[in-house]
Amino acid sequence: MSDPLAEAIAMLKLKAVLTKTVTGAGSWRIRRSDEGLSFYCAVLEGACCLELAGHDPLTLHAGDFVLIPAAYHFALTSLVPPASSDVNTTPVEIAERHFRLGDTHAAPEMLALVGHCMSESPDAGLLVSLLPECVFVRDEQRLSLLVGMLKEEAQAQRSGKAFVLARIIELLFIEAIRSATSLATPGLVRGLADPRIGQAIRLIHQDPARRWTVNALASSCALSRSTLFERFTALTGVTLLSWRMTLAIQQLCQNGVTVAQVAERIGYGSASAFSVAFTRYVGVPPGKYAQHRAAVTNSGQVRHAGVQVPCEREARVRN
What we know:
single chain, alpha+beta, Jelly Rolls, Arc Repressor Mutant, subunit A
């Protein structure tokens, strides 16, 4: 795979947890604390508001789509929310996978498709840090088609349903991120959108075995060393080392690949130099990390058990 964005999303190994339709009437607020699950909302009729920690309230109208790759504390509300911020409306299930918010006797004022998905990758924290914190898209036809497919597949009972839902969600993530006209938070897409930094990302991605120094990469992108370093970090939210370690982690996930082979593939002169850099960044040696990944995969677990990958965004949100 040669596309950095598609590769990062594929590595997340997304799995649909819940997809449902929601209607609302009157005054309501539903709070969520999803501990890093991905959240998406497509407003099909009417309007509602999204309250996301650290952001101004966002009004969503029919045709709008919001994606939060790692959601922690947020709320959906009616256009005029309850006077008290402590109100947390209990959804009423009126049919399978269809819930009602607010006044159950009044005519619906809003209809939305909402859902959650989880990453089956133990490296979800690192990968999500490469994506925007929140993506907002308005009136995008291709996205609407994918939302319709997602709704239909979620409500049907067909063989291969889990596989199809996972592929639709991957497409939904990619289409939403690349359709966003502006991204307020740093991430991989903001980096790719910048001609010079996008070139740097693609150069590393297309030829990771080359021993890229900051000077060599800066020269290839017609930037000074300091400008490349500062702009890369400002636009993507990660360092050049983070991106190389992302590629290294992907390599370590492959069966039969040695630490020495990974070191060579991502441009380190020796396995020992790579091991030192990897251990400093991830917290454990690459060999131990690869063993842990294999154990997690075989046991079917999702989260780390003692191996922590840095995720600055999660730390910021939790604090």
